[in-house]
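Sequence in, structure out. Go.
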Amino acid sequence: MFEEKELVKGKKEVKNTIDEEQVTISKSRLDAFEEKMAMLEEVADKGRLANYQSKQGINKTKIVKLSTIDNKIITSWKSIKDEVFKINGVWREDQQIEVFYSDGTSEKITLSDFTRRTVKIKCEVKSSTNSVENNKTVTMLNVDFQGSDITIDVNFVN
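Output:
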């Protein structure tokens, strides 16, 4: 399998004669290569990388971040009131939204409360479906959250 030749003062040279598919490189060079690959994947355009992987048949688990308030998943929200006005030279805003939860409840809160109270949780995407409503494509995700399936519009994740 391997040929060994005795060189000067006890050093040996090892040659691989098994097959031409094997390549021998130093550990430092392999580490440099792995570091460079990690850097390239980190700075790569995530959309193009995902497109390439799907075309090549590489299935990676898709992870999204869902917004929660008080451990309840937010499935959507809508603006109720959005007033901006100036009082004594100071701009004031009165922004209120209605937040809809996965358990069917809703809550009216100010936009500043929404941003302060919202916590993001990573969840695994099980599947996605596209449908056309009013000449607009809607993408819905089926997400696994703590063992239960939640269907959510792609506009309300991450």
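Check: The radius of gyration is 28 Å. The chain is about 20% helix and 50% strand.
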